[in-house]
Design goal:
The protein is elongated. A hairpin with a 2-residue loop joins β24 and β25. Strands 15, 16, 17, 18, 19, 20, 21, 24 and 25 form a 9-stranded mixed sheet that branches. By secondary structure, it is α+β, with helices and mostly antiparallel strands. It is built from 13 helices and 25 strands. Its cofactor is Mg(2+). GO terms for molecular function: catalytic activity; metal ion binding. This is Fumarylacetoacetase-like C-terminal domain-containing protein. It comes from Microbacterium mangrovi.
């Protein structure tokens, strides 16, 4: 329950909750089932990042939210402190190398997240961003599978989970990391946060506690208390590094949901009848086969019959005219280039790169570039990434850079032509997974995208089954009419069919189906 008597008191007050200054702090990206479900992804294996020991703070400390930022988020976590060196230790022996357990708060500034991707160097490495304490629990006295983690903000419980909710047992982190480097006494492993992590503001007080309610004496770390304060001054210097930048994706992840962030819900994904229990954006094999068989011209005709006249993405041509494009839309939006905005949104892990990294199998990346063909909107590297992700294709009403190399990748691409200039000449990558306009047509995430040599069409998900069935039926009818014209019949009364020809066609159809 209290600091082990053999642990030396650290000279630096920042490390008062630890045996001393840690040589390494290793943090787990995603470890609790509740958090994984919230994020919509569950890792097969643990992944990690490092935090500097200079980020450690003791209970009662203040954390500064820098001027000009908005998304400082807390993450209550269980911290493991290594007691004896661990190198290549088996799973069954790993817990014996843990000396102590305590509470930690893995603060992160989402405004600085984009340019460091998963490394979190700037977003989680700031001074005071890793409070640890208040007291150490002797690891020998607790069951690692029965620890409890709770977090309070301004006195209200916001996180309450146990190690039974972990995807990976605590000992696995020790065993796994020891395969790659020696864990030394005093090293700290931050074991991830459950659901409930969210944004805090200046004046908020965050408290984290780890305890073992069923252990002798009900061992506890005590409350680790941190107060958020507002930073002063001019913020960050753009001449030496990336500036803070946020978008709705970052807001939703920082707050924990779009609803908590005050954002409208994303347009619903289509119900496409996969029946597999897998990714709902995937079209069922049956529906995909129908769409691959139906020409875009026929689909356009059926949509027009139902009052939809503005569903074609105009001004784009295929790099591979022989390839059919079928998939669900994943949207990416560019805005006109403005130099100050490109500095904050154009570099690093921007919206364009995030969209190509996040595209799923069967999705089509649809890019709004306002019909501006004066620069590229993607090149060969991003085409390769989309192809590796098994994306169904790419549609952009802007230009393509590295045209021949993109074509060589083989993924279906529709564009407004080739252009050698880079993105920043005309565009700023702004956001993704939002409603966009591409080629004069509104496209929402999850819309059905079909392309062939006639062009690209957008089908509302609720209509896709009805429209494709009607288009295929019309194809059969048109084929029968074409055969009659080839036999020498005039088109008058046949195209479109009058009552006499309609009766002949329906008789032929019944005969073909064996029902005549």
């Amino acid at each position: 329950m209290s600091t082990d008597s053999t642990s030396p008191a650290p000279a630096d007050a920042r490390f008062a909750g630890l045996p001393g200054r840690p040589g390494k702090i290793i943090a787990v990206h995603l470890s609790y089932a509740s958090r994984a479900d919230q994020r919509g992804r569950r890792p097969a294996d643990p992944s990690y990042f490092f935090k500097p020991s200079s980020s450690v703070a003791a209970t009662g400390s203040e954390i500064v939210r820098p001027a000009g930022t908005e998304l400082l988020a807390f993450e209550g976590e269980i911290a493991l402190v290594i007691g004896t060196p661990a190198k290549n230790v088996p799973l069954q022996d790993a817990w014996s190398h843990v000396g102590w357990v305590t509470a930690a708060n893995d603060f992160g500034l989402y405004d600085l997240r984009a340019n460091d991707k998963g490394s979190n160097v700037r977003s989680k490495g700031g001074d005071g961003y890793t409070p640890i304490g208040a007291q150490l629990i002797d690891a020998r006295t607790v069951d690692p599978g029965a620890l409890r983690l709770r977090t309070w903000v301004n006195g209200a419980v916001v996180q309450d989970d146990t190690t039974a909710g972990l995807i990976f047992p605590l000992a696995q982190f020790v065993a796994d990391l020891s395969q790659h480097f020696t864990l030394e006494p005093g090293d700290v492993i931050l074991t991830g946060t459950p659901a409930g992590s969210s944004v805090v503001r200046p004046g908020d007080v965050v408290e984290v506690e780890v305890d073992a309610p069923h252990s002798p004496g009900s061992a506890t770390s005590g409350r680790l208390i941190t107060t958020v304060v507002q930073g002063e001054g001019g913020g960050f210097d753009e001449s030496v590094g990336s500036l803070p930048q946020v978008d709705d994706t970052q807001r939703a992840e920082a707050w924990g949901s779009r609803e908590l962030a005050g954002l409208p819900p994303v347009a619903p994904r289509p119900s496409t009848g996969s029946g597999t229990g897998g990714d709902e954006t995937q079209l069922s094999p049956e529906l995909r086969a129908k769409l691959e068989a139906a020409p875009v011209a026929g689909l356009s005709q059926q949509l027009r019959k139902r009052g939809f006249n503005n569903v074609t993405i105009d001004g784009v041509a295929p790099l591979h005219p022989e390839a059919k494009l079928v998939g669900t839309a994943k949207t990416l939006r560019f805005v006109p280039n403005r130099e100050d905005l490109f500095k904050t949104h154009g570099g690093g892990y921007n919206a364009q790169k995030r969209a190509f990294d996040a595209v799923r199998a069967g999705e089509v990346i649809v890019i709004e570039a306002r019909g501006e063909s004066g620069s590229g909107t993607l090149g060969d590297i991003l085409a390769i990434r989309a192809n590796a992700q098994r994306a169904a294709g790419i549609v952009t009403d802007g230009g393509v850079r590295d045209h021949d190399a993109v074509a060589a990748v083989g993924i279906p691409v529709y564009s407004n032509g080739a252009h050698p200039a880079v993105l920043g000449r005309k565009h700023v990558p702004w956001d993704h997974d939002v409603t966009i306009a591409c080629g004069g047509t509104t496209v929402q995430p999850g819309d059905i995208i079909v392309g062939d040599n006639d062009g690209v069409i957008v089908i509302p998900p609720a209509l896709v089954e009805e429209v494709v069935d009607a288009a295929l039926a019309q194809e059969d009818e048109d084929a029968w009419i074409a055969a009659r014209v080839a036999e020498g019949h005039p088109v008058d009364g046949l195209f479109p069919m009058n009552a006499e020809w309609r009766a002949r066609f329906e008789q032929a159809l019944r005969q073909a189906q064996g029902t005549a």
